[in-house]
Amino acid sequence: MALALSLVPASAEGMSMPPRPEPLLPLGLRLRDRLVVVVGGGSVALRRVAALMAARATVTVVSPAAVAALEDLAERGQIDWHQRPYRPGDLQGAWLAMACTADAAVNARVLAAANEARIFCLRADDASQASAWMPAIGRTGRATVSVHGDRDPHTAAALRDVAITAVEAALRGDPAGRSQRRAQGAGSGMVTLVGGGPGDPELMTLRGFQALADADVVVVDRLAPLAVLDGLREGVKIVDVSKIPRGRFTAQEEINDILISAAREGRVVVRLKGGDSFVFGRGMEEVIACTQAGVQVEVVPGVTSAVAAPELAGIPLTHRGISQGFTVVSGHVAPDDPRSTLDWEALACAGTTLVVLMGVENLSSIVGALVDAGRDGDTPLACVMDGGLPSQKVVLTTLAAVVSSGHPRELRSPAVIVIGAVAAFATGAGVGARRPVDLR
């Protein structure tokens, strides 16, 4: 789906109006595997190259120098880079050219060569002379919106934002794709696993929001960004499958059956989780169940709370001179539990930051195992509760304090536990601090 808008000043009889701009023919270009030559290696060229790569074009950059990101793309074989000035013949075989240098004379030569070869050419410094130019572009779901604002990029961008909002509302109301899927009948549904991030809806991915806009059924648990449910279109069925510690519990097998049954009815199902579906989210179990049942399944990655929650509390999991790595483990079973498969002695001696998920209930046992294995009792420990939510709180203490006094009384689930020197950076400790403040 594509929407193209072109802003042209209206005329009125009897009024003095400026000359009307040359009319445009908005087009969508299929550039996959077609050569596009970009002359220039600065930030403007980088923007154009990024858009071309998204369109799967074959990109050649011609420039004596390039910004680091373009150089990296060339080194990784994503683009070709001719590290020299532009010269005649560089446009041979191109379907499209873009003159993006800071030198007007060079851009003029590129445009002249393109016109002679009948190759459409964008000119970054003077769109009025170019044979083509880029509109303001926005994408939402399956829709692409492009707006021409009579060569005024600010006007075009403003109109694009208004158009995107309108298109998103239309897609939420009655997306054409959903109607088509329903017309196909039972068995044509699908399941999309969406990682919702640490809890703040603004930290969920754009692709995740797009999947929710298409959903007929949303299967959600308590750690997902629940605020997004209020934005679902009317008629979407919400199924709560939360697993509450020492409380109500929905078996994984039952969740799998819910996903498969709804998809077999021809519905578009979103399985919305907190964090990332593949980091202690049982996402692969659901993928396997759907695949074995013959149900189409897609996975949309999310921002894992193992990284996001500490960061939102001011804790870097790695920091030069302090920590060269981090390990993420599950604490849902205690170290002395026969079900535990972790080598806590090795974790204690690894010298990296330790991130524990689902470890609130077993925190005292975990800390005891680490200290018994030789981890320094002065090691900072930070617990980030409700990461990304308005209710976010941080408890900052040490291993020795937990050993001597037990579970911090303020600590509650859900929380991400960070053990290591970097935990001292937590909110309240101050940048550059090395010893934590005991907030118990």
Provide a descriptive summary of the structure in words.
With about 450 residues, the protein is an alpha/beta fold. It has 4 domains: about 30-135, 3-Layer(aba) Sandwich (Rossmann fold); about 135-175; about 180-305, Cobalt-precorrin-4 Transmethylase, domain 1, CATH 3.40.1010; about 305-425, Methyltransferase, Cobalt-precorrin-4 Transmethylase, Domain 2. Helices cover about 30% and strands about 20% of the residues. It contains 12 helices and 18 strands. The chain has helices spanning about 45-55, 70-75, 105-115, 155-175, 175-185, 205-215, 250-265, 285-290, 305-310, 345-350, 365-370, 400-405; strands at about 1-5, 35-40, 60, 80, 95-100, 120-125, 135-140, 145-150, 190-195, 215-220, 235-240, 270-275, 295-300, 325-330, 355, 380-385, 395-400, 415-420. The strands form 4 sheets. Strands 4-3-2-5-6 form a 5-stranded parallel sheet, sandwiched between helices. Helix 7 packs across helix 8 and helix 11 crosses helix 12 (about 400-405). It is globular. The N and C termini lie far apart (about 55 Å). Residues about 10, about 180-185 and about 430-440 have low confidence and may be disordered.
